[in-house]
Amino acid sequence: MTHTNTPSPKSRPNSPISGLPGALGSAVPPPIVPFRFFIACGLGLIGFGIALAFNAGPVINNPTGHQVLAVVHLALLAFLSTLVIGALHQFGPVLGSKPLRSIKWATLSFWLFVIGSWGLPLGFATGVSVLVSISGAIVVCGVAIIIWNLSAPLSSKDKSVSATGLRWSLTFLVITVFFGMLYALDRENNWFLLVPHIVLAHAHLGLIGWIGLSYVAVSEKLLPMFLLAHRPTPGPGAWAVRLIPLGLFILAPGLVLGISWIVAVGAIVLIGGLTAHLGSLFDYIYKRRRRKFDFYQGFLLASASFLVLAIIFGLIAALAHASTSLRTHLVEDEIISLTAWLSIASVGHLHKVIPFINWGLLRSKGLATRQGGKQLLFADLFESKIAWISLVGLVLSFVLLDASVVTTISQGIVISGVFLSLVSLITMWNLGLGPKRALRDENKGSVLSEKDLSMMRNIHNKQF
Amino acid sequence: MTPNSSIEISDQVRQIISLPDLDILIDALKEVIDPELGLNIVDLGLVYSIVKQEDIIVIQISLTTPGCPVSETLPIEAERVAQKALAHLKTRLEVQVVWDPPWSIDRISPQAIKLLGAG
User: Fold this and answer.
1) In CATH, which superfamily holds the domain spanning B8-116?
2) Residue A292 is nearest to which of B35, B106, B118, comparing CB atoms?
3) Residue A169, min C-alpha distance to chain B (Å)
4) Least CB-CB distance to B101: which of A1, A7, A23?
5) Domain boundaries, chain B
6) Secondary structure (H, E, C), chain A
7) How confident is the model over A87-102, as pLDDT tens digits?
8) What is the pLDDT of residues A398-440, one digit of tens each?
């Protein structure tokens, strides 16, 4: 027998398994913690779609009005932020090999965040300012608990691209919430005029600094894993998590103050960071990937296309000699494309994260094989054909939305909204039904014997 | 059949576990499937070595990435099947996770690369 790739002497383990970074023990929270965020985000996408369909007119005619604010907050709070927070509650402890500070407080923060993120748009839509204020305060409380809870795993000494990026993204969550509070108070007190470029600062901080940077950071950990595309050095992803925050720290004050040269410098640095992310993504997919093309890569590429589109819309809006109305619609399309980038990427990753959590649950119940005797895999817990349908539905919805806004055709926005709601229903059905399908087939597959389960429990107890 | 060539097996282990039993052990480890990739841990090159530490046979395995989603389940599963396979030897057996050297794609067997479909 030949011996290749022999472990070096220092790899000889002296420590028990529980002391090693991959052995998480109790670091990962119970499945219900991320799951309830994921269910809520599915409802958030349905709500976003419905709100969009009912506010097609204002989206074209009054993009900074209360109705559109309601639509935008449903998209960014009730859908995207809820999804990202759920993912971070699962991913943060895995990354830092440290648990959340408190599961009970995670439950409380979930309810606070969800109630606030629905109350806020409802307040905007109905014009009830007290509802906006109360909901805003509830969101702030929820976010404070979330940051406190996540600070435990993210305070580890991990200096990886993912950990660095997530620390920045949570910083931007705080800044975004601060801007939101300030704007809400300003609506009551009229301290300053909420002109579009000031509103845009808030939108860019939230979309790119908080949600976008979270995705960029997490993708640096997940892409090598899911694509089998490991690389020896961090690569361009390391630049992405440095340049994106730097760009935003220049761009946002530029937008707030309305100083165009600062905006230009910030935009250049920011685009540099986003391009570094795209470079990293394409390096993983085209140069290093060891897995055949599948729906997941479809989601990644489609979402990346919308990021490119967002940059193009942003540049055209900034540089082209266009009428105020057209410029407004181009900026709207930039925001829509950024939302599409993050929505498609996030929904794609849900098809990886949810089956993994469900798999763990089923295994803990002793389910060993699927129908036909083969071992139960993550891919058995959803239908990949339906995942493709979700992807196509999302892409069509956002393409239609972009096109309808720039051409001011409101019917397209209505159809897009209906599509988005349907995609959410289909995706929830696909991902939610997987475990039920597996359990239904249990008799045709096999379960571990009580002896095997007991053996595994003993090993687990010994190790963790 | 011979055990997978990428696994280092110490001479001390060979004195305790005879060749047929080693084959049985490796075959058992091949039953442990990475649920994301659908491939067994031996063909993925995740089983690094089988060594003797004091009076314990230690199977050193790694994972594709630290913090990998199955980092808690795969080692347990590997230890379970290994203990079952060699139950008749009455030898103490453990699985340990090692991170040095980090797992790399070079460790995947050519057959597994083919199954992954992206050469």
Assistant:
1) Fe-S cluster assembly (FSCA) (3.30.300.130)
2) B118
3) 20
4) A7
5) 8-116
6) CCCCCCCCHHHCCCCCHHHCCCCCCCCCCCCHHHHHHHHHHHHHHHHHHHHHHHCHHHHHHCCCCHHHHHHHHHHHHHHHHHHHHHHHHHHHHHHHCCCCCCHHHHHHHHHHHHHHHHHHHHHHHHCCHHHHHHHHHHHHHHHHHHHHHHHHHHCCCCCCHHHHHHHHHHHHHHHHHHHHHHHHHHHHHCCCCCCHHHHHHHHHHHHHHHHHHHHHHHHHHHHHHHHCCCCCCCCHHHHHHHHHHHHHHHHHHHHHHCCHHHHHHHHHHHHHHHHHHHHHHHHHHHHHCCECCCHHHHHHHHHHHHHHHHHHHHHHHHHCCCCHHHHHHHHHHHHHHHHHHHHHHHHHHHHHHHHHHHHHHHHHCCEEECCCCCECCHHHHCCHHHHHHHHHHHHHHHHHHHHHHHHCCHHHHHHHHHHHHHHHHHHHHHHHHHHHHHHHHHHCCEECCHHHHHHHHHHHHHHC
7) 999 999 988 888 999 9
8) 999 999 999 999 999 999 999 999 999 999 999 998 887 777 6
